[in-house]
């Protein structure tokens, strides 16, 4: 009975920590047999300003290698990504949408991207939707990953990936193409201004470093597609990363940079590492 009570207290303590995290994008990983600490940072893949602050630079200086979601230096990366973008089983955008909806999406792309979607007919709808990302921000696109890689190269350190291109593209293949198409049609019907407003809200939350608010935003009804597929987009990947992070951190002090949405929540990387016995502290 005593052991059960202790276990319950530990679980409730962990649950509470998962519900409300300190406002920080950078976290220190220590304890549980690690000889030196590693660091975990929540990144954003599209931004106007990817300047790294001093605490991030210090953490990069204290580690000996960089792990991102993908090895961005992998040879043939673009060719593998292009291959993974295609739908299987002969599916096309044309076959997934009514003529009316297809026309709405086509006109949306012509208006905002200067081209229709005929050439992209075999691409997964989610991939087609991502092509609008450059229009979401009124600036040249930058990424935090790019800035992290630049520092690592200056330090003559290797850059690795927790996943392969094939792993990431399989994530989208796991979501029914029909659902992806509905989301693409919704984006086109709502218009670019609605997408820009949603994206700005996400960027503002990222800048606030409030991981709890960011997770709530991802589960909000306005992001229904994301919330309904969070198991595929986030949870399963987080779970797959934990044994890799453990093995890597035990060998070398490492800087891990993954999308900020992967950090918070009960099934986020922070909580999963705490459950494994590691001390995860916000770097203030």
TrEMBL record:
Gene Ontology BP terms: negative regulation of Wnt signaling pathway; proteolysis
Chief location bin: membrane
Cofactor: Mn(2+); Co(2+)
CDD domains, sorted: Tiki
Topology relative to the membrane: Single-pass type I membrane protein
Signal peptide: 1-18
One Pfam family it belongs to: TraB_PrgY_gumN
GO annotation, cellular component aspect: membrane
Keywords: Glycoprotein, Hydrolase, Membrane, Metal-binding, Metalloprotease, Protease, Signal, Transmembrane, Transmembrane helix
Gene Ontology MF: a single term: metal ion binding
InterPro entries in alphabetical order: TIKI1/2-like, TraB/PrgY/GumN_fam
Subcellular location: Membrane
Entry protein name: TraB/GumN family protein
Source organism (scientific name): Flavobacterium album
Phylogenetic lineage: Bacteria, Pseudomonadati, Bacteroidota, Flavobacteriia, Flavobacteriales
């Amino acid at each position: 009975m005593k052991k059960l009570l202790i276990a319950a207290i530990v679980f409730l303590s962990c649950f509470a920590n998962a519900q409300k995290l300190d406002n920080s994008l950078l976290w220190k990983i220590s304890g549980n047999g690690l000889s030196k600490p590693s660091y975990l940072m929540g990144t954003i893949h599209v931004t106007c300003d990817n300047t790294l602050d001093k605490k991030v630079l210090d953490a990069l200086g204290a580690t000996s290698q960089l792990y991102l979601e993908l090895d961005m230096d992998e040879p043939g990366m673009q060719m593998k990504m292009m291959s993974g973008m295609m739908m299987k089983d002969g599916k096309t955008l044309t076959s997934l949408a009514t003529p009316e909806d297809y026309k709405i999406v086509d006109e949306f792309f012509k208006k905002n991207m200067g081209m229709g979607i005929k050439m992209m007919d075999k691409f997964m709808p989610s991939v087609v939707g991502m092509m609008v990302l450059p229009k979401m921000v009124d600036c040249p696109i930058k990424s935090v990953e790019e800035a992290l890689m630049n520092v690592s190269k200056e330090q003559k350190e290797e850059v690795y990936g927790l996943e392969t291109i094939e792993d990431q593209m399989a994530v989208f293949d796991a979501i029914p193409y029909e659902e992806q198409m509905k989301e693409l049609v919704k984006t086109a019907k709502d218009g670019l201004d609605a997408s820009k407003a949603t994206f700005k809200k996400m960027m503002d939350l990222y800048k606030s470093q409030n991981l709890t608010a960011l997770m709530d935003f991802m589960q909000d009804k306005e992001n229904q597609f994301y919330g309904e597929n969070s198991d595929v987009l986030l949870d399963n990947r987080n779970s797959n990363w934990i044994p890799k992070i453990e093995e890597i951190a035990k060998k070398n002090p490492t800087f891990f940079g993954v999308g900020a949405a992967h950090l918070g929540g009960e099934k986020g990387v922070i909580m999963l590492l705490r459950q494994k016995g590691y001390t995860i502290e916000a770097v203030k």
